[in-house]
Amino acid sequence: MKVIFAGTPEFAAVALQALHEAGFEIPLVLTQPDRPAGRGMHLQPSAVKQYAVSKGIEVLQPLSLRMDSKDPQRAEEAKAAHQRLLSTPYDVMVVAAYGLILPRDTLDIKPCLNIHGSLLPRWRGAAPIHRAIEAGDAETGITIMEMEEGLDTGPMLLIEKVAIEDSDTTGSLHDKLAALGGKMIVEALNKMRHGQLEAVVQPEEGVNYASKISKEEAALDFTQSAQEISRKIRAFNPFPGAHGNVNGTIVKLWGAEVLAEDSKAPAGTVLAADAQHGIVIACGSGTLRLTSLQKPGGKRLPAAEFIKGFPLEGQRFG
């Protein structure tokens, strides 16, 4: 079975590696153009491109796949990409976190399967892992679905659940789901090869959308409950990094524990900041113990180390 793969970040690279190691022939990989990254803002290839190049797989990086784009360069690149797909013998396209919309022209060539990081129809859209943690979901998972023009609306082919632990961050849950997605897409293609893959239409009940994460969301509101704030800290780890403001200094918060104790102090007040109690913050309801923090230009530090260089006793997070 010949597979064209379309994806960009590490989540997708894990799936590409699983397909390659399972012995599927991959004549072509589509990924987004190289982007500036790092302190020097040098162009960096995507995780998918890096893996494909290391295995000698041809890589195509169009700006768009929409041939009707009003941007002449994007339209021209889309036409060239479309012709490349038409001229490449393949049986199925696998898509994982590609980041570009696949138009009807592309979807009509061959079946397109998508690896989506949620239990559809819950959390359709761009940031399903972040949103599941932020919402306090008890579980999430991977859905292998057949793609259509709607946003993650296609029929479901395989679905597996994963429990969301209280300690899970978006980073840790991402890694679990990436590994599961790689395993499941191999299973799905093996079933397809033997005519054993059955499609189930998504139910209309339970649909919601995981909107893209913005940096503005990372500013914490301490009038919320300790539970809500804790979930945001976990959801925004590693990106964009939840933060609070202490006397004009932005402090990133990477870890926290919800405490049973309540407080009548104003929300954001630092109730304790010492070796015995750690860093304890009053919230709209409940209290929170911060366990990992970072000041501008510094490293992530455990709370006990952080307060040695950044005293917080008597301060208040805005």
UniProtKB/TrEMBL annotation:
Source organism superkingdom: Bacteria
EC number per UniProt: 2.1.2.9
Residue stretches making up the Formyl transferase C-terminal domain: 212-310
One function term, GO molecular function aspect: methionyl-tRNA formyltransferase activity
The protein, known as: Methionyl-tRNA formyltransferase
Catalytic activity: L-methionyl-tRNA(fMet) + (6R)-10-formyltetrahydrofolate = N-formyl-L-methionyl-tRNA(fMet) + (6S)-5,6,7,8-tetrahydrofolate + H(+)
Entry keyword annotation includes Oxidoreductase: no
Source species of the chain: Duganella guangzhouensis
SUPFAM superfamilies: FMT C-terminal domain-like (SSF50486), Formyltransferase (SSF53328)
Keywords, sorted A to Z: Protein biosynthesis, Transferase
The Formyl transferase N-terminal domain, residue ranges: 1-189
Gene3D superfamilies from the UniProt entry: 3.40.50.12230
Keyword Transferase: yes
Binding site for (6S)-5,6,7,8-tetrahydrofolate: 118-121
Function of the molecule: Attaches a formyl group to the free amino group of methionyl-tRNA(fMet). The formyl group appears to play a dual role in the initiator identity of N-formylmethionyl-tRNA by promoting its recognition by IF2 and preventing the misappropriation of this tRNA by the elongation apparatus.
PANTHER family to which the protein is assigned, alphabetical: METHIONYL-TRNA FORMYLTRANSFERASE, METHIONYL-TRNA FORMYLTRANSFERASE, MITOCHONDRIAL
